[in-house]
Each structure stands twice: as C-alpha cells, then as structure tokens.
Amino acid sequence: MLPARLVTEDRGCVLRLDTGVAEVLTAAGRRRASYSGRMLTRVARDPAAAPAPGDWVRLRSWPDGRTTIEECLTPRRPEGADAVVIPLPGRRLPA
C-alpha cells in the first residue's frame, strides 16, 4: 500500500466517455480517468453502474500520474421507475 500522502482523492463531473476512459471536470480543470479495479468489477456485474456524462464521480490520483474513477456518486434510479413530480408553488397537480 502506498503512503496516504502520495495518493490524493477528488470529485468531478463526467464530461464525456470513450472506451475505458472518461473526461472529468474537477475544480483543478479537465482530467482523463480510467476505471479502478473495483469500478471495473462493479460495471462488469451491472453495466448500469457505469458513470454517464453529467454524473459526479470520486477520483483517485496516483503518484505515477494516473487518475482512476473509484465510484459513481450520482444515485441511480431503477430502470422503469416513475419520475418524481414536484409541483410548482401555487399550482395543483392534475388528479
């Protein structure tokens, strides 16, 4: 295991995806990130667990310059789930 000071973590928003690589926007700017081993396993079991553009992810930066996506922070709704409707103030929902 590497010393904690050599490994840093960050959060970012996925801008676009290529095969095995994502472009992620962080507070420090754009970064290219691949999936971590744990994330690869998760996506292999459930392809819906893969991040999509607009999703927030937790990143890990390694001493050799690599950046990996450790997990998707954007909650997923089950496929086919009904959308949540939030009424505007002063308006009633149709019966």
Overall, the morphology is globular
Q: Give the assembly state of these chains.
A: single chain
Mean pLDDT: 83
Q: Radius of gyration, Cα only, in angstroms?
A: 17 Å
Count of strand segments: 5
Kindly name the structural category.
Answer: mainly beta
Distance separating the two termini: 59 Å
Tally the helices: 1
CATH class: Mainly Beta
Q: Could you give me the name of the CATH homologous superfamily?
A: Nucleic acid-binding proteins
Strand residue percentage? 35-45%
The strand order across the widest sheet is: 1-2-3-5-4
Amount of helix: under 10%
* CATH fold name: OB fold (Dihydrolipoamide Acetyltransferase, E2P)
Note poorly predicted spans.
none
Largest sheet: 5 strands, mixed, barrel
The number of distinct structural domains comes to 1
The H/E string reads EEEHEE
